[in-house]
Amino acid sequence: MSSPKANLADLDTCAQEPIRIPGKIQPHGVLIALSGEDASIVHVSFNVSRLGLDGESVLGQRFDEAVPTLARQLQPLLDEVRGRQEDGPSRAIMIELTGTGGRFEASAHRCGDLLIVELEDARAGVATAGEPDPDLRAFVRRLQSTASLDHLCALATDEIRRMTGFDRVMVYRFDENWNGTVLGESRNDVLPSYLDLRFPASDIPAQARELYRISPIRIIPDAAYEPVPILPVLTPGTDKPLDLSFAALRSVSPVHIEYMHNMGTRSSMSISILQGDRLWGLISCHSREARRVLPQIRNACDFLAQIFALQVGALEQAASATHRMHLSSVQTKLLGFMAEEDSFVSGLLEHPAEFLEVAEASGGAIVVGDSIRLIGEAPSVSEVRDLADWLRREHKADLVATDSLARDRGLPATETSPAAGLLAMSISQVHTDYVMWFRPEVVQTVKWGGDPTKAVSAQDGSIRLHPRKSFEIWRETVRGQSLPWSRNIIETVRELRNAVVGIVLKRAEELASLTVELQRSNKELEAFSYSVSHDLRAPFRHIVGYSEMLRNQEGSRLSERGRRYIDTVIEAAFSAGTLVDNLLSFSQMGRATLNKRAVDLNMIVEDVIRRMAPDIGDRQIDWRIGRLGSVRVDPVMFKLAVENLISNAVKYTRGRDVAVIEIGRTDDQSESVIFVRDNGAGFDMRYVNKLFGVFQRLHRAEEFEGTGIGLANVRRILERHSGRVWAEGALDQGATFHMALPNQEAARNG
Amino acid sequence: MADLKPILLVEDSPNDLELTMTALEQSQIANPVVVARDGAEALDYLYRRGPFENRQDRDPAVILLDLKLPKIDGLEVLAKVKSDPALRSLPIVMLTSSREESDLVRSYQLGVNAFVVKPVGFEDFFKAIRELGVFWALLNEPPPGGGMLKP
């Protein structure tokens, strides 16, 4: 079995073949080329004897002198063709030749300065026609009421099969890369189904496609034909071979004959379907046996095919418009999601279905800075990172669409990659951030009823050309390729990009103005607390100061009640002053910069306990301090947090004969946790949420003094360290406070 | 004890002035106390100009300087004194209501010898003043973040 590559090489030879100037015709008719000036005979096919003429001898003679009956009957057709501007065959007329008993369908066309006349044998029994009288009106009506391409194909193939009697009629469409797909089919049981089969572009080489584009119809009534040479080989005067581009009798490439043979078909006809100037596809007909379709029916088929083409064009435009509208609605939905979310990224991530649908992709990725988020069937994060690097390096466009990343990047195609095709949009001015969509290899999205995976059977070892082979070659051709990104999708994504960039820019502006706003209000706050620290604090100091002087100097002259009043004034002013101090330190905690370094926790704890000695007095406290190691924190702030927790523990165990205060550390994968546990008054877990709020107190002032800022400070300090704080407890059962620092902040003492 | 260096107290608030004077009195510090009510007056005293042109006493043992002052504020006075080679060696104690870190940092940058936040409680304040009189450094606050302390 030869490899697909070898096949490609063979077909390449076909591509080089002089298919327009084969110098031969098929034997089902006679060809005569006339000089345009004087209608002298310039070329004849060797089988001109069928007209009762001797080939060699008529060359150079005037047509009307050599074959007057024929010339007379052809006169109107020739006049018609002479007067025409465009190339291509004329209508067909019936010719009767008396004497020889010949009955022909004749058509003519211009070829440069020459007129080519083709006479196809139309004797009864020679040609097999289907229905000679198609009901075109009914067909057009049915065609126009059809809203799906599948149905359209079914109608057209059915009608053409009815008219021509072929065993199988297919609609074959080219994609952007000239690979072909069988879209629709009408057949009897004689030939197998090729529906959904794929063909590589090499199956119909460029020059053949060009011929199909300019000449609407081709026919091979019997692939087993003996070609008939044209005399002379070169046109006298120009010394060029006769151009048979528009000749219905043109002899075809042996490669094509071989292909037909391998397909098990002996006769074929194909009609070109154009959209504008582009070859959209073919209506391709085959029979297992020889089958001739005469020019009049062929012309009717061509007419039918043109109506089909118009209808397909209208349908595709409508479908494209509907498709575009659908994509737009998905895109609008996405924009709505993005506007609702804090960031456009989460808008996309939260709605993967719409994200994928907008580009009809099966996977995606969002690359913003170092963060990479994957959606659906996507390559790995590191592959996406490579991809983003490649885009940054190689592409300056806002939008990059490729149906083969492997080809573009010069990498070997991996069949299983979810990213055979890529559609990427940059979402920053400097092209560093991207939104990407992926499509898998097209082979994975295609199925063929004929089981494409089944290889050509063993006995086909010598067969080079066969639809199964074609499918294999096509598979090779599109290895590492995804379905192409349609214009609709690219346009939709382009609009999406404009909107996203708009959103991103607007967010950036909003953020910038918010920052300015924030800086201003921060400044105001600073000014406020500065003035509070001076102007509000001073009066409290003065009240306390003067009251104490009054008590010291005049206390003995006051009544018991008077002295109690003064004590209360002092106490109240003192606590107001302390409150101001605490508030200020709380506000400073949020603003001060962090100076992190490794700190020995046991040292901090010991220091705090030592400083608390006056408060502890002669109370009995059972300190249980574990090995705390070190943490990387701002020492001043963190010490304050530790101090707060320990002083709370000391305070709330006041009622215990023996207070037990345990300080320990439990680390896990992500956090280092330091806890302070006591056997004190505890708290009701129902109020745990209030514990860490500013001015939130769970005890009455006469039970336990305090300003309600201590734990708020602890929380703020932990937050400044990207950590967290929480508590557990029960009324009268003690409490445990936890401070957790993220692991990168922590370093166990080795 | 005429030879004793005075203490220069720069204070604009009459209440604080009275409280500080009372505290100094009760501390039984023998040094005379010279009072300036704003930064300008303090500098006039130190530079022996204006009303102090002919003063005969020695330069102060310590300057107790309030931070917020009319005309020329405490930080400016501090900056002026500490940048003058003739006056640089005079110990200055910032005696202030402010707990603002920025003031603290700025004062240490300018070379303050101690920074004392006036405590709310009078007992504490009294204690502070008394100790300042003997050795101002007892209650000084270290510069935040371990900043340098200029001699």
Account of the protein in words:
The complex is a heterodimer of chains A (750) and B (151). Chain A is of the alpha+beta class. Chain A contains 20 helices and 28 strands. Chain B is α/β, with parallel strands linked by helices and 151 residues long. Chain B has helices at 14-26, 39-46, 74-82, 101-110, 122-135; strands spanning 7-10, 33-36, 62-65, 92-96, 114-117. In chain B, strand 1 (7-10), helix 1 (14-26) and strand 2 (33-36) form a beta-alpha-beta unit. In chain B, helix 1 crosses helix 5, helix 2 runs parallel beside helix 3 and helix 3 runs parallel beside helix 4. The longest helix of chain B has 14 residues, at 122-135. The two termini of chain B are 28 Å apart. The A-B interface holds A 529-530, 533-535, 537-538, 540-542, 544-549, 573-574, 577-578, 581, 584-585, 588, 592, 595, 636 and B 13, 15-16, 19, 22, 67-68, 96-101, 118-123, 125, 144-145.
Strand content of chain B: 5-15%
Q: What oligomerization state is this entry in?
A: heterodimer
Q: What radius of gyration of chain B results from the CA coordinates?
A: 14 Å
Rounded mean pLDDT of chain A is: 83
**Sheet with most strands of chain A:** 7 strands, antiparallel
Largest sheet of chain B: 5 strands, parallel
As residue ranges, the low-confidence spans of chain B are 136-151
Instruction: Tell me the β content of chain A.
Output: 15-25%
Would you state the CATH class of chain B? Answer: Alpha Beta
Number of DSSP helices of chain B?
5
**Tally of extended strands of chain A?**
28
The CATH topology of the largest domain in chain A turns out to be: Beta-Lactamase
CATH topology of chain B: Rossmann fold
Query: Widest sheet of chain B: strand order?
Result: 2-1-3-4-5
Short structural summary:
The complex is a heterodimer of chains A (750) and B (151). By secondary structure, chain A is α+β, with helices and mostly antiparallel strands.
